[in-house]
Amino acid sequence: SGSIPEFFQLMKRQFTEEEWRVIKSMKNEWLQLDMFHRHWALKESFIKAIGVGIGFDLQRIEFNVSPVELEVGKTYNETIIFLDGEEEKEWTFEETRLDDFHYIAVALGKSGEFGKNHSGVIPTNKTAFTILTFNDLVTSAIPLAPEDPACWESFCSRQEMPARQSCNPR
């Protein structure tokens, strides 16, 4: 396993100089990695919202994160995005810190409920994120097809890792 600086070097092209300045301004490597993950969540939320693939040049977008520290369980929307150096005022990003290791960022376009007229912490009476268990998700699920025991047996008999193809020259 590599070091955090080595990882940052690999990811260098995914962030702007200003984003790296903010990431590296954190007190220690673990806080830097934490800020890296926050920026990554923001970039990913925007890419998913506009529906483009991972081929998008992530240096075209720059986030000015605010506030620097997010309190666990609160939802914020002060972070600003710049696209090709210009602020994209119609975009709002709701950010939540779930715990010490996980950020959530949701990109909202012009129709977002919390637009540019609202800033700061989103009111606490607004439902934030709810953590669902697997059972919560499948309780009301309906099978698409009848259960096929042979399919399950076939799945269970598969190797965990795909076998390497051996090269047998003739």
Automatic annotation (TrEMBL):
It catalyses: apo-[ACP] + acetyl-CoA = acetyl-[ACP] + adenosine 3',5'-bisphosphate + H(+); apo-[ACP] + CoA = holo-[ACP] + adenosine 3',5'-bisphosphate + H(+). SUPFAM superfamilies: 4'-phosphopantetheinyl transferase. It is an enzyme of class 2 (transferase). Belongs to the P-Pant transferase superfamily. AcpS family. This is L-aminoadipate-semialdehyde dehydrogenase-phosphopantetheinyl transferase. The gene is LOC103065342. GO terms for cellular component: cytosol. Its EC number is 2.7.8.7. Keywords: Transferase. GO terms for molecular function: holo-[acyl-carrier-protein] synthase activity; magnesium ion binding. The lineage of its organism: Eukaryota, Metazoa, Chordata, Craniata, Vertebrata. Residues 6-99 form the 4'-phosphopantetheinyl transferase domain. GO terms for biological process: lysine biosynthetic process via aminoadipic acid. Pfam families: ACPS.
